[in-house]
Amino acid sequence: MIRAEQIPVMNRLYRMQWEESQQSHVLLYPEGMVQLNGSAGEIMALVDGTRSGADIIAALEQKFPEAGDLGADIIEFLGVAHEHNWITFD
Amino acid sequence: MSTTGSPLTSPVIQPSADNPHAAGRPFWLLAELTYKCPLQCSYCSNPLDLSGSGTELTTDQWLSVFEQGRKMGAAQLGFSGGEPLLRRDLEVLIREARQMGYYTNLITSGLGMDDRRVSDFRDAGLDHIQVSFQASTEELNNQLAGSQKAFAQKLAMAREVKAQGYPMVLNFVIHRDNIEQIDKIIELSIELQADFVELAIAQYYGWAFINRAHLLPTKAQLIKAEAITNQYRDQLDGRGPKLIFVTPDYYEERPKGCMNGWGNIFLTIAPDGTALPCHSARELPIQFPNVKDEALADIWYRSTGFNHFRGYEWMKEPCRSCDEKEKDFGGCRCQAFKLTGDAANADPVCSKSAHHGKIVAARTEAEQLAAGVAPSSPLLARNKRNQQAAVDIIARG
Could you tell me if A40 lies within 8 Å of chain B, comparing CB atoms? Predict the structure, then answer.
């Protein structure tokens, strides 16, 4: 189980960027690509190796006040991203 | 809030004036910068005519191709060849492509590299380096590569690539002469700290087709190699390199969905600027357009060459009425042409093909050659000296 105080770090195998032609964030890696949906892209865009899970939750709850409590969803996604090896934890 | 990313999917695209055949985007752009190569691997997929049909594109011409491709949605760019390190403008090409937003892949033998160049490419923004090996031992590797210094150089460069923090893929083309050493190959890859290892059974295009009798493993060898790979995968349990075992279609009863469909996501540019739907398509009797003459969007969406095998209208039986056609697109056009003489036929790998016997015969031949009971044609190293001999073999059928 991922804890909110942990700091996610992008796996250096992956590079994230906004793809204009797909109107989405993508994770690029050797000879491949994962297309992220809107919320996954918002979360991954905040993974910078300094923000903790809690920081990311706070930032997104501030950005999307109408979305309510995002904590559980964001922690769940960080778990999925970790399973996929997109991120590691410091 | 939904929380998953999704793998690359092709959205449904509707035909339009700009895109009459509802083609996907050229997500993968492969830049074959040169056909020149210091190695002479007998399984090379380059065409037999290594001079190509003209001079290599200039730096500016390549940059224009990259820019046009990026606008059309290309995200992956492979620098390949031949040996791309032979292009002295490689660093410039990497830097500019990276600034355009490409994920940049260098696909190299490692020959022509040194620490300085690895570092310069890093500064230019290169994302990933794929180093090819021929085998796990110096003697066999150098014999297969036709170069006495290849193995030592490859080892040094693979270590350098990792030391400088790149993601690294190692690529081994597997065939009858190295398949028995697949355990040693995997151990070498672990030692070199590869992130991914492609254990790619040779596919029979270009020079590999001429040399197929020497390359095609037997069924027993293949089963054993795959079992060993699975054992290592279990042992590694997610640690160490990810092992990618690419099975040869010659032992399948249904063809591969080649290139994810003709002109669907792959776009190859040959050294002279010829645009191709895959790196083997040059062997087809089709006139393909050149980036020197036409805009890339016109080539991709509107040229005859790229629209030749899009959709399903071109298919003959048994593909036309087959309920699997949307899965495999009738297989590989190049293989259909090479083995049946008609690129619109079903890929003979398919057991429904009237020409499937050609594949079965190749398997039998592999068994006999491995058992030493059949005479074999000479192995032709990939070099200009052997070009005419190779062309003659094709002409004789």
Answer: yes
